[in-house]
Design brief:
little secondary structure, tyrosinase activity
Amino acid sequence: FDRQARSGVDTLQQFMTPNMFAQDVAIQFSNRTVIPQASTQQQSGSSSSSGNRPGMSSGNRQNARPGGRN
């Protein structure tokens, strides 16, 4: 999580607010290393800071939902 729990919060249900949800995920480990490639955006000094989230510019990140379901 990106924040500390409020005072008196002991469970996930107590921590979550109406705009949050929990989702089961399956994480698969492939035991391989991929060397990151520099993109032309990063080399040109673009102000977009989407990091490793494809399709997410700084303008639409605030209202995006997890899993790409906007």
